[in-house]
Design a protein that fits this description.
Length: 220
């Protein structure tokens, strides 16, 4: 998302962006926080610029961040608000909405899980780490939500996902097969040959005992 300028707008000329309406339900503002914000704006005005973009089709300025500030400004009769203007794709606009709200909200665990499910439904091809970064959660939490969504038929299983570098990677990493160790009979033969070929079989046997003790220590 690219910032293209800063200016001022009348709050009456602004509307909530579709991306904001879509995501806001997952990240509602706590009523107590809303009252504190209203008291602060009443005393100090709106100091933090709203984030907006202009719909090129209609020419309407739409809010991506700061909808509650705009509503409070309307209620208090404030007629000028600072705004930062942005442009970008719908996906970039959704991500800006999430980032802006995550920075301002203390989301519950359930709200974060709901946000994870939102992103999974939007694009199940994104990796767990990408969605975790977007939602402020651990990738293992995303993995659990993904498994549940697949099981419930809410999203499809994907064989490849886009990682944080934009690369398509297998959903499950291929693990190399474990190398089979020597058989017990082979070990016995090697030990026997080592002892019989040694100049002093007793010292060779003592060496073997020492090797066994070292092996025991290494696996503790």
């Amino acid at each position: 998302m690219k910032k293209i300028g800063s200016s001022f707008r009348n709050p009456k000329a602004l509307q909530a962006a579709p991306e904001l309406i879509e995501i806001q339900a997952y990240m509602p503002m706590d009523p107590a926080d809303l009252e504190r914000l209203k008291a602060d704006i009443k005393e100090n005005g709106v100091r933090d610029p709203l984030k907006i973009y202009r719909d090129r089709r209609t020419g309407q300025d739409l809010i991506l961040g700061g909808y509650n500030r705009q509503q409070i400004a309307l209620e208090l009769g404030i007629d000028t608000l600072p705004v930062d203007e942005y442009e970008g794709t719908p996906q970039e606009r959704r991500e800006l909405v999430v980032d802006d709200n995550l920075n301002r909200r203390h989301l519950t665990a359930e709200q974060k899980r709901a946000l994870i499910r939102y992103f999974l439904k939007k694009d199940p091809g994104q990796s767990d780490r990408i969605i975790g970064k977007k939602t402020g959660t651990h990738h293992s939490t995303v993995s659990k939500e993904r498994a549940g969504a697949v099981r419930r038929g809410e999203i499809s299983h994907v064989d490849k996902r886009t990682d944080t570098r934009g690369r398509k990677q297998p959903a499950k990493k291929q693990t190399a097969p474990r190398q089979a160790g020597p058989k017990k009979a082979d070990v016995k033969r090697i030990v026997r040959d080592y002892i019989h070929s040694a100049p002093d079989p007793h010292l060779a046997a003592a060496d073997i005992i020492e090797f066994v003790e070292i092996a025991r220590e290494s696996i503790k």
